[in-house]
Amino acid sequence: MKRLLVVLMGVALILGLFSAAWAADEVRIGVYLPMTGPVAAFGQMSWNGLQVAHEMHPTVLGKQVKLFLVDNKGDKVEGANAVERLIKYNKVCAIIGAVCSSVSLAGGPVAEKYHIPMVSSASTNPLVTQGKKYVFRVCFIDPFQGKIAAKFAYNDLKARKAAIVMDVQQDYCVGLAKFFEESFKKLGGKIVAKVMYRTGDQDFTAQVTAVKAKKPDVIYIPGYYPEIALFSKQARELGVKSYILSGDGAYAPELIKIGGKAVEGIYFTNHYDEGGVSTKLGKEFVKAYHKKFHKNTDSLGALAADAYFVLIHAIKKAKSTDPEKIRDALESIKSFAGVTGVFKFDKNHNAIKAAVIQTVKNGKFVYVTTVSP
Ligand code: PHE
Which range of residues forms the domain containing residue 59? Predict the structure, then answer.
């Protein structure tokens, strides 16, 4: 019995040493994305982009990079658990994610607790990084996004009366609605109606009726694609002619699949347009992506790729996979020529960069204009 125990302990020791050596031989990066659930299209687009970025740059410091993906289902509790699991179980040195701001707001504090750098690819709510030492993002933030939407509504669409339709369950939507309202009022516009819904709602009759009665020039709905598509459908069916304007959360092919004709002419702010790719890295990414997936790139894939590339850049700069050193290296980046353009981090670790406005025309996403910060 005793001998067996000694043998078992020996085996365990060897296995332990072996896996430690194994771990030291690879660079482990955690990823948490909504692969299932209401916004699964966001997760899939991001993961596609990440895979391409990883294939383009599979090693750093002479070691293989290994990505560990956990599905956060677009849910806060799942998000926090995902980050905990990636750190404690997969022993990652850095994390990429999440997409939805509410999920990054839940995952960020866990990364903070364990001192592991986290780079969100697409979460735009300002609170995601605010006051955090280890959380960064490669996208712009919603005060900027709300402002350019308001300017576009007022100056380009000549809207003076706006209605706001918002998902009260999402930090992203509540925040973006507020930033739009502030900017639109400052320009001289009026908010004539404000109605609420919740993620997963299917029937928008009450909201459409309330909005229609106020005859707005524009309806601002800074939500996610499933509800934007359904709302637009029901609004058009009930004869609403106002412009519909939205934020980056509108962006998924599913918007058009679900919304059909009703989303024709909808405008929304976004992060990236393939036609505008200007950097060397961006051009290489587009080429590699086309080759792998035989379709055009999208903003979420491009942003996720940027989160990966900026992390690899930081690891190189740090000459180490020590999370503290990666964090310091990220903070010291002066300018980065990513897929989505050239950007830098402000003092709150937010990327300062341009935005684009897109629309839906003949069942396709079409570029309208670029707005610089
Ligand atoms: N900005 C959104 C959020 O913070 C996420 C998103 C980004 C969705 C880009 C689609 C495209 O929740």
Answer: 2-140+277-353
